[in-house]
Request: fold
Amino acid sequence: MQNIKYTDSASFRCLEHLRETSLDLYLVHCGKEQCTPAHLCNDIRREYIIHFVISGKGTFSTGGGTVHELTAGQMFLITPGEENTYRSDDEDPWYYAWIGFNGIRVENILQNCGFSSRHPVRSFSDSGFILKYVDNILDARRLTLSNDIKRKSYLMMLLAELMDDTAAQNTAVQNTPPHYDYATNVYLESAIDFIKRGYQQGIKVSDVTDYVGISRTYLNQVFQKELGLPVQTFLIDYRLHKAASLLLSTPLSVGEVSDNVGYSDALAFSKAFKKKFGVSPRNYRTHIDTMDKFSEKQPPPES
Reply:
């Protein structure tokens, strides 16, 4: 294994030959460079590399012979085992940053960043976050456990922002729905867990969608598929059943019960409760108590 190497010059800054620290995703090297005119690279790599063109121009050629002419705001992917050639422009050579990485999660991550074997070139909307994370990685160059964790965190944050950037571009340009990565039951469990922990604070459906990270439309589809009802109905029913339990098990007033289940308006709570259970909260205790006493007076069923 090559020794870890850090280089810092006027035109080239790079941290390379990093050791594998995780099977799922790990950084191999990272850097940025102001290339000289007609600067040529031609190699077969063992890791994935994304180059981000910050300024200037150049060309990128894949093993299949396709030549891409690139300018600022575009990025290109180098895949392990494939021959690729990239060259800076003669008159306006590019300045780019790059990350080299590997791991068993890489293919799924790259797919969510918009890359595929047919599309090794993508655009990005803002170079600011790219340079921020690349610089953070380079600044964490000392070989400590803390810096190992920092470098991986910055790599993951950079890739996550690329995913968000790609999703936003796809939605805006192609009017396509966002891509969701997990099974519907995973989103359902996350949403229900949030509701159980937050219903007393008056959370709304928008708070649930923000927490889970999916659109309201898709969250409703999840609840309809898994439970057969929309998320708003589930949230209201959960609050009202908790309220019914409090009315029977505590001496709290109707207003206090309303506050305890996340209703700021006691009147709105009473209307929703009566719609659900057929009686007002105030009469619910009497109604249930009467039903219990009536049941106690009935003769036992014949055996």
